[in-house]
Structures are given as structure tokens and as C-alpha cells.
């Protein structure tokens, strides 16, 4: 049997296993191992898995992941999110839908210390939902803004998706991070627009809140400085080349720990909880990488990525249509599979194609992060929606999905803007490097 | 009885893992600060890699036990508990196969590294120790999965 055919059978088997509830990482490792053994030899397959596991587990480059996750967990457990939310509310409270806007801004700010979108959604759901309920907000708008705002956690640096993309494609994580800032702000503004339009049509969903004086607004910024200083130190140090991404993660986590101890927000129990959560999430992410590495080695010997790239190059299709098609695959795939797993699975296939077409690797990284973020709020497996429904058990799942729709439209608009004007993502890194 | 001991073991590994992560954070940060004063910690990069290996290996049984891995359950959750049990039983066997292979091959790999006398570059520490550790952690993971398989077998054969 020719390797490409075995590869296609492998991919089909992988999807079959996906839908049998087997953890995605296990599926990839299993199919990758069996497929590689069939194509090369059983012995080669056996030694491949041991090496791949050790290479991933001991890789210094990947130590950046647990450290940034720890930084986010420490901020989460110390309750920094509440402070961010209160401040944002002081500024947007009196606008109709202002609490939802405050939620979105707080999500963007929390995304600056946390690299995961479900974590951001969970944080804001615990903080923002009770407040919005208190002011009589509709369930759709309240839950929708929390679930969707959470997706900003992934785009705003530090971002686990961007770290993984950078490692897989050998692009600078620092450049990817800085490239994510302006698009994240753009999406935040698009979200605000979506909330505004939604409230104009459904005024009962988002009532006007209190107004605050200019003095109160300025005063609310107090106590925020330390958190933002940690962010500035981490990003600044990374861009200026003071430290590697791993060191940036270490400094960020330690800085956050110190700030939260200093603000008396941290306790021993919260610290230990952060460590355990970090361990669990890191294991999930790193095992996904291990599975994807084994599966990627299998794909490489099937020559499918190579054949795909040459097939696309030979076909007479305009390049924007190919990129559009790839993004459509990410959008549909993101509805079913976890964003990280999807990116790890598909980058070996799509990245060479997009590079052959002459697109910028940094820009492509930002765009696919955006597109896979749409998947976290779309049915049937929008993870953020499930996270929010886990926190707010009294709100039906359908209502949250419905509430997320205006934000999905905003994400699509944002992505189109970014596709038409790639400079939005690229000007800041170009300025720095 | 065995299950209780296994849970205790998972807890111990979890604590070692948490300690390794905390140590990684302190070490990386200390290295950056010391470097500022012109005295970087020699071998900090290597130790970080080792600590990460330990942390991840330790977290494997724990993460599996708390179902911390992402999976797609939108189809299976609509099925009857008995069918779910059958599916889980089958996928459990696949998972057991791959992790048994990883545990066994890591052991072989560690033995070959030990034989060749390979040491880490800066600290000259024998890295095969960590490969043995990975092998052990995956063996414990296999035990956890074995209990899952027995559990889903029970569900599958329930009347």
C-alpha cells in the first residue's frame, strides 16, 4: 500500500477516535505510532515514541508553557480579575450595555496576564455575571459577553496558542506576542460595537448603570499599576531581548506572585491551588504537543503535507481563495475540536502551503488564532460556553450560544479587517525588530 | 485497597510536580536577576529542562485521573450508558497499548543512554535518570487506565 493512502486511512481513523471521547492527545499518539510502524518498521515506531516523549518533556523551549500558565493561574486565584472589572465598570458603567463592555475590557486586561481563553472566561464568569445580574441584565447578553470576551485571553499576549504556533513554525514568540496586541484591541472595540448595536435593538438586555465622576475613575486605577507593571516588564523584557520567552514566563509568574502577596491577595492555599491547576493544564497542553509530534512524524513519512503543498501550487486557484478555504477549515474544525489540538494537527499541513503562497508567517499566526477563537463560542463544542454554563448553572446553554452570536459577527468583522489590512498585526513588530 | 494505594501515589506525584513547577519559577527568575549582576546560575537552563521533565511526568496520572485532557464527547454523551461503557472500554485499551509502549520503550531508551554513559552538557548529570522516571510515571498511568477499563467493562456488561 502506498504511504499516502495509509496516511489518509490514518487521518480517517483519527477522526473516528476523536468522536469516541478518547482524549485528543491519546488519539494522535496512538494513530501516529501505529501508522509510523506500518509505513516504516515496527522497530522504528517503537523507538520513535520513546524519543518523541522525552524530547517534548525535556525541551527547554517548552518550559515557557507551564510558566505562563502559572502566571495566569496566580492572577486568577488571587482575584486580580475583580479589580480589573471594577475599574472597567467605573469607565463604561453609564453607557447602555456598559457592564457588558466593562466585562469585555476586563477580559482583554486579564488576557494580558493569562494565556488561555477558557480560563479568562471562567474568571470573568465568576466576577462579571453576578454584577450584571444585579443590574438586571438579560442572560443572553451577560453570558454571551463573558464567553466571548474570554476569547481575548488567547489573542492578547501572553498566549498559549501563539507560543505553540511559534515553536512549531520556528517563528519568534516575542514577535508573535507583540503582533497580537493591536488585533486584540481591535477585537475588543468590535465587541463594544456589537454590544452597543445589540442593546439598541434589545434595550431590556442591558440597562444603564451608575455614572462616576472623573475623580472616581482616576482613583479606581490605583492598585492596577502593579499588575500592569508586571505585564510591561514581561513584554518589554521580551521585546528588548533582556530575556528568553521561558525567562519572561518565570519573571512574570514570580512577579505576579510578589504583587499578589504584597497586595495581600495571595494565601498559601491559593498558591498551592495555582500550582496544581498549572500542573493539570500544562500536562494537557504538553501531552497534546507530544501526540501531535508523534502524529506529525507519521504524516511526514506519508508525504501528505508535501503532496498537498505541491498539489495546491500546481492548481490554478487564486491565493486568497486558498487562504480563505484554509480559514474555513479552521472555522469549521474549531467548532468540533479544541483550538490548540486543531492548530497542532493542521500546522504541518497548512503552514508550508501558506508560506509558499508568500504570506507573512506572523500574520498567519494571528489570523488562525482569531479564527480558532470563533470555535470556542460556536456550537456544538464551544468550550467557553460550556465553561460559562459550568459557572452559571441557572442559564441555559442555548441562551449562552445565542448571546454569543453578536460577538461571533464581531469576530468575523475583525478577522476580515485584519485580512484586508495585514499591517494592523505587523506594524508593531516591524517597529520593534 | 489497591485503588486507594494508587490514589495515594498519584497524590505524592502531584506534590512533587507542583514543587518542580515552583522551583522552575524561582530558578528562572533567580537566573535572570543574578545575570543582571554578572553572575548567571550555571546550568540553569539544564535544571529547568529536568524540572519540567519531572513535573510533566508526575502530572500524567493525576491529569488522567481528573479527566483533564480535552476530548470530544458531543456524540457519545447522547448514547446509553451501556454503549458508552463499550466505547470507553475499547478506547481505554488503545490508550493502554500506547502508554505501555511508551513506558516500555522509555525504559529501553534509558538503559541504552546509561550504557553509552551520556551526560548532560553543562552539569554533566546523567540524563538517563529522567528517562527512567518517565518510564515509571507512564507505568503508573497505565495502572490508572487499567482501573478505568475495568470500570467501563462493568458499565458495558450492566443489565
Low-confidence stretches of chain A: none
Distance from first to last alpha carbon of chain B: 26 Å
Order of helices and strands of chain A: HHHHHHHHHHHHHHHHHHHHHH
Compute the CA-based radius of gyration of chain A: 22 Å
Q: What integer value in Å does the Rg of chain B equal?
A: 20 Å
What does the largest sheet of chain A look like?
Answer: none
Strand content of chain A is under 5%
Helix content of chain A: over 70%
Low-confidence stretches of chain B: none
Count of DSSP E strands of chain A?
0
Instruction: Give the overall average pLDDT of chain A.
Output: 87
For the sheet with most strands of chain B, the description reads:
none
Beta content of chain B comes to under 5%
Pair with the most extensive interface?
A: A-B, 60 and 60 residues
Describe this structure in words.
The complex is a heterodimer of chains A (433) and B (159). Helix content of chain A is 79%, strand content 0%. In chain A, helix 4 packs parallel to helix 14, helix 6 runs parallel beside helix 8 and helix 19 runs antiparallel to helix 21 (397-420). Chain A has 433 residues and is mainly α. Chain A contains 22 helices and no strands. Chain B has 159 residues and is mainly α. Chain B has 4 helices and no strands. Chain B has helices spanning 2-36, 44-65, 81-116, 128-157. Chain B starts with a helix and ends with a helix. At the A-B interface, helix 2, helix 3, helix 4, helix 14 and helix 15 of A face helix 1, helix 2, helix 3 and helix 4 of B.
Please render the helix and strand layout as text.
The complex is a heterodimer of chains A (433) and B (159).
Chain A: H1 3-18, H2 24-39, H3 42-58, H4 64-78, H5 80-92, H6 98-111, H7 117-134, H8 139-149, H9 152-155, H10 160-169, H11 173-201, H12 214-220, H13 225-239, H14 245-262, H15 268-302, H16 304-314, H17 319-336, H18 339-356, H19 361-375, H20 383-391, H21 397-420, H22 423-432
Helix pairs in contact in A: 1-2, 1-15, 2-3, 2-15, 3-15, 4-14, 4-15, 5-6, 6-7, 6-8, 6-11, 7-8, 7-20, 8-20, 8-21, 10-18, 10-19, 11-19, 11-21, 11-22, 13-14, 15-18, 16-18, 17-18, 17-19, 18-19, 19-21, 20-21
Chain B: H1 2-36, H2 44-65, H3 81-116, H4 128-157
Helix pairs in contact in B: 1-2, 2-4, 3-4
Amino acid at each position: 500500500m502506498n504511504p499516502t493512502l495509509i496516511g489518509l486511512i490514518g487521518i480517517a481513523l483519527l477522526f473516528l477516535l476523536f468522536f469516541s471521547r478518547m482524549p485528543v492527545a491519546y488519539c494522535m499518539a496512538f494513530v501516529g505510532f501505529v501508522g509510523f510502524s506500518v509505513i516504516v518498521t515496527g522497530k522504528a515506531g517503537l523507538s520513535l515514541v520513546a524519543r518523541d516523549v522525552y524530547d517534548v518533556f525535556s525541551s527547554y523551549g517548552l518550559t515557557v508553557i507551564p510558566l505562563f500558565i502559572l502566571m495566569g493561574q496566580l492572577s486568577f486565584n488571587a482575584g486580580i480579575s475583580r479589580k480589573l472589572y471594577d475599574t472597567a465598570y467605573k469607565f463604561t458603567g453609564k453607557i447602555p450595555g456598559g457592564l457588558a463592555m466593562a466585562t469585555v475590557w476586563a477580559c482583554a486586561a486579564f488576557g494580558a496576564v493569562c494565556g488561555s481563553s477558557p480560563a479568562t472566561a471562567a474568571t470573568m464568569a465568576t466576577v462579571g455575571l453576578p454584577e450584571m445580574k444585579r443590574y438586571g441584565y438579560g442572560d443572553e447578553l451577560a453570558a454571551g459577553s463573558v464567553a466571548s470576551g474570554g476569547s481575548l485571553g488567547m489573542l492578547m499576549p501572553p498566549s498559549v496558542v501563539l507560543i505553540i504556533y511559534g515553536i512549531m513554525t520556528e517563528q519568534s514568540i516575542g514577535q508573535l506576542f507583540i503582533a497580537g496586541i493591536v488585533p486584540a484591541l481591535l477585537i475588543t472595540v468590535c465587541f463594544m460595537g456589537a454590544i452597543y448595536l445589540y442593546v439598541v435593538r434589545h434595550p431590556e438586555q442591558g440597562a444603564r448603570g451608575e455614572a462616576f465622576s472623573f475623580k472616581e475613575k482616576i482613583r479606581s486605577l490605583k492598585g492596577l499599576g502593579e499588575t500592569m507593571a508586571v505585564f510591561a516588564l514581561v513584554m518589554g523584557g521580551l521585546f528588548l531581548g533582556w530575556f528568553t520567552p521561558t525567562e519572561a514566563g518565570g519573571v512574570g509568574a514570580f512577579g505576579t506572585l510578589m504583587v499578589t502577596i504584597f497586595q495581600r491577595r495571595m494565601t498559601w492555599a491559593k498558591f498551592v491551588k495555582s500550582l496544581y491547576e498549572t500542573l493539570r493544564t500544562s500536562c494537557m497542553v504538553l501531552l497534546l504537543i507530544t501526540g501531535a509530534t508523534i502524529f506529525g512524524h507519521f504524516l511526514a513519512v506519508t508525504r501528505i503535507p508535501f503532496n498537498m503543498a505541491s498539489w495546491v501550487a500546481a492548481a490554478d486557484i487564486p491565493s486568497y481563495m486558498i487562504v480563505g478555504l484554509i480559514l474555513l477549515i479552521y472555522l469549521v474544525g474549531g467548532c468540533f475540536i479544541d483550538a490548540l489540538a486543531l492548530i497542532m494537527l493542521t500546522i504541518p499541513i497548512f503552514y508550508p502551503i501558506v508560506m509558499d503562497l508568500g504570506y507573512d508567517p506572523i500574520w498567519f499566526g494571528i489570523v488562525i488564532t482569531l479564527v480558532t477563537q470563533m470555535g470556542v463560542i460556536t456550537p456544538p463544542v464551544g468550550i467557553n460556553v460550556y465553561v460559562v454554563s459550568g459557572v452559571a448553572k441557572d442559564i441555559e446553554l442555548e441562551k449562552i450560544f445565542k448571546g454569543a452570536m453578536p460577538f461571533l459577527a464581531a469576530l468575523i468583522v475583525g478577522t476580515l479587517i485584519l485580512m484586508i489590512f495585514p499591517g494592523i498585526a505587523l506594524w508593531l513588530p516591524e517597529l520593534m525588530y | 485497597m489497591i485503588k486507594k494505594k494508587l490514589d495515594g501515589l498519584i497524590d505524592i506525584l502531584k506534590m512533587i510536580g507542583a514543587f518542580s513547577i515552583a522551583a522552575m519559577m524561582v530558578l528562572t527568575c533567580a537566573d535572570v536577576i543574578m545575570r543582571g549582576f554578572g553572575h548567571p546560575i550555571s546550568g540553569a537552563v539544564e535544571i529547568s529542562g529536568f524540572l519540567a521533565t519531572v513535573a510533566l511526568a508526575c502530572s500524567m496520572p493525576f491529569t488522567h485521573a481528573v479527566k483533564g485532557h480535552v476530548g470530544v464527547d458531543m456524540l457519545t454523551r447522547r448514547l446509553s450508558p451501556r454503549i458508552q461503557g463499550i466505547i470507553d472500554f475499547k478506547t481505554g485499551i488503545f490508550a493502554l497499548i500506547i502508554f505501555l509502549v511508551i513506558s516500555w520503550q522509555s525504559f529501553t531508551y534509558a538503559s541504552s543512554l546509561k550504557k553509552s554513559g551520556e551526560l548532560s552538557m553543562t552539569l554533566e548529570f546523567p540524563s538517563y535518570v529522567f528517562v527512567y522516571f518517565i518510564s515509571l510515571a507512564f507505568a503508573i498511568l497505565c495502572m490508572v487506565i487499567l482501573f478505568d477499563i475495568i470500570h467501563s467493562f462493568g458499565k458495558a456488561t450492566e443489565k
